[in-house]
Design brief:
This protein is mostly beta strands. Among the domains are: 1-47; 456-625; 953-1081, no CATH class. It contains 15 helices and 66 strands. The protein has a 60-stranded mixed β-sheet that branches. It has a three-stranded antiparallel β-sheet with strand order 14-17-18, with no helix packed on it. A hairpin with a 2-residue loop joins strand 56 (889-897) and strand 57 (900-907).
Length: 1090
Amino acid sequence: MADSDKAISPKRNLRRRRRGRIGLMMVAWIALLGVFMIFAGLSFTGRVLEAPGWVTSQIERRLSAGLGQTDLQIRSVQLQVDPQGRPRLLLRNVELRDPGGASLAQLNEVGAGLSLDALLRGQLTASALRVAGAQITVRRDEQGQFSLAFGSGTAQEATLAGLLEQLDTAFQTPRLAAIEEIQLRDLTITLEDARSDRLWQATGGRLTLSNTAERISINVFTDVFNGTEDLAQMQLSLTRPKDGDGASIGATLSGAAAQDIALQSPVLSYLGVIDAEISGAMRASVDAEGMVEQFAATLEIGQGALQPTPKSQPIAFNSGQIYLTFDPAEQRIEFSQVTVQSDQLRVEGEGHAYLRDFDDGLPEALVAQLEFPQIAVAPEGLFAGALTFDKATADVRMQLAPFQLEIGQIALADGPRRYLAGGRIAADEGGWSLALDAQAPSLTPERLMQLWPPALGPKTREWVARNVLAGEISNIHAALRLGPGTPPRYGLSYDFQNAEARFLPNLPPITGGHGQSAIWDDGFSLTLHQGQVAAAEGGMIDLAGSTFKVANIHARPGRGDIRLKTDSSLTALLSVLSNRPFRISERTGRSPDLAEARAQLEGHINVALKKNTPLSDVAYEANGTLRNVTSTDLVPGYTLSSRELQVDLVTGDLAISGPILLDGLPLNIAWTQPLTPERASTSRISGQVELSDRFTDTFGIPLPTGTVSGRGVGELNLEVTRDAPIAFSLRSDLQGVGLTVPSLRWSKAAESPGALTITGQLGKTATIDRLAISGPGLEAEGNVEIGAGGGFGAVEFSRLEVGNWLNAAVRIEGTGARPGVRVIGGEMDIRNLDLAAQRQGASGGGPVSLDLDRLIITDTIALAPFSAQVTTGGGLNGTFKARVNGGAPIEGSLVPTPQGTAVRIISERAGAVARDAGFLKTLAGGTMDLILRPRKEAEGYDGRLRIRRARLRDQPAMAALLDAISVVGLLDEMNGPGISFETMEADFRLTSKRLYLDQGAAVGPSLGISLQGTYDIATKELDMQGVISPVYILNGIGQIFSRPGEGLFGFNYRIRGSSDAPRLSVNPLSILTPGMFREIFRSAPPNLEE
């Protein structure tokens, strides 16, 4: 039985097990149906099932067991079934703590999509996680290492690749292997950057972590505060293949601040100098160590400005694009496209750059080479219009802190031309600073004006644009310096060739110009090494060596300073100066061809740089030389010539000076031509002129032949007025000049001093308004009259003083060697007349008319008035009339002799003549005949006097004589009607000092007298002797034995003393001596040779 029971028992047991399985299955199905009904109810109603505490604890214990040493705490657990019937487990207020109790993460909500299959198998396995309200803190230290913290937990250092690797490891655990996706919503991400001392926070973010068989990836989308009212949007993706060690990173940005982007990667650090929003995408790959292996970015930069520092002036732009890749091994950035667009600049190009000078993982410098196929530059207010260039390349080094851009070279291609520039641009707390140098091999004037900023010396730029007409510009060098708080400094220099330019409006342009020009902070200069001006008349003007400068290009209006060097014909120079504003020809009335000459001048013109500049705004001066000068127009009617003259031109006046020949006459002159309208009609010539007979011949001054001899110097002044005779004046000291006036018997030796003044007018017929001559023995002033045909008419002296013998008005008229002379008024003193000269002048002369107020003969005798008509041919010859001392009339004649002029005086009133002359006041009646003959060798005259039928009465000396000889009857007769004398004769010698009476006799019926002796004219002292013969009618028979006037018997007498009170002595014994023996009682006769 036991064996059979043993055989039956397995079968029974099998049946029992089958019945048990069926029962369990029924129970399971019933349970499953219940769960389904519960899930369906939850799914249909959307209700959340709150798990009891033991369930929460069980779930907390089982999840903590899967986290190793990390402790998990859950506030509550809820179960929910979504409308699709998928169960979800909601964990509220979840906190993760490390073994020490420190919080690692705090999560508001964690949702897990449960696997229904696993759940039915009794396993709590999640296929997806949903987290809400998570906080993630990412920290970057000063070395660029990242650490990650959830909530307020402790940060854990990790690289991006390491983080993904840890996630991959976690997902390989059984409890997490089924999770395909983890989503975080309402995520707060905080980035704390110790390297930049900045903090960024993104709120309301979403994070999705995907786990597939090939890769693990994280996608983050969040809004980030960018400093404006709008939020920047950022999408970040991290991917790690499960079969590799590295990771790839992708980021998409929209509206992110450029300065925030620059702080995130060394590759983008240079973006920190701009203030703009950036949108774009970036892709990078990192190795297991977190080092970047590849990087690429596409950046769209919005409207903004370049502003490295808050104090630097923003440089605005509209947009920009950057497409780049980065090679970390070479630290090389490859820019496949760089585009910048603004109102002032439009460029698109490519290039590459190297990151240099790293400090704590960040580059401090960027060295770049960029190339732009086309560039358009139009900085607002800098250039007159947009500048385009065919190509631009740049080698630069950018230092980030402080900002400094070192430009090794910028090359701009402009057609066949290439421009180079280099320098430095920097920005600090003070603002921008710039030092830029540029050069170009050549430019056209039009291109130079395009490159010249209008604000840089606007008036000078306008002047250059208006007056530089054509040419080639080369060897251009430019420099610009800017600094905070200081005015800009700049410089530009260039050479020019084949230039055509105007240096003043309305003047012909300079052609063929070669030279240099420069502009700097305040000034502008241009130097002409070669150039010329084509004048309307006279050919070309060479201007080599001329300069043009503007001392202050900021002044309004600016003033140009022109330094001219000219070499041309004088005609060409005057032709150019006949244009506005000078108008020399118009103002002076002279044509440019007024003289043939070669002109070499250096001049200075200061002119206001404005349109239609008036002459009042032009200051000018010039000096130089005229060579080989010939003109018949400067002094009308004369030919002027010179080998070399000095030219001086100042504002308002043109002066030419130097030695000239005027119709062969040497002069050293200075010609001044006013240029102002009110004075331009008159020019003046002054200088030194040779005084000789050539002077009188040249200027047509009709002086008698032989008047001028020798050679001297005079100061000549000519005043040349348009349509008027030339006014002239001449002054000289007459040194070296001999003058002779034969009609006046006056001459001046060449070596003696003198003075000459002549004024008058020159023309077809010259006039002399004033002639003043002074010299030894001569003072004369008058005028010259021009006769018919322009010859000498007359010279009339209103005052003529010759020596001390003539002071009168004199008129000399007629030509040739015998001019007529008329002396009017005044007086003549023959006491001082050079009788020797009279004798020497006896060879010739013209007629002389004398109408003198007074002719002085001696100190006491004068003829007043005195008139005469004489000729001087062969000596004085003529007649005269006069009154002695204004009283008794006389007549006479002048006769030439070999010794001089002899004088004969006759009068019908001999007694009156003797009385008025002061010789004998008691002589009455009678006629007089006096002859004076000049002595041959000595002074004075030999004379003979004859008086007929005169009476002598009341004569004290005679009365005393008669009384002495007791002739009573004759004495009574003298006291009565007077003693009658039939004849009175005397031979005498007259000098200026004495009268020498050689033999005198008076004979009458009752008395005969002889007289011999001297009379001192000055002292009136007498020393006379003679014989008185009474009853001369009988006694006179003895005359045959004695002298005239002496009888056979007579008394010797002597008279001495003053003529007013003479002393008389008589020798009574002489009556006893017959006539011829009477000489023993006489004194020696006067010596006439004294």
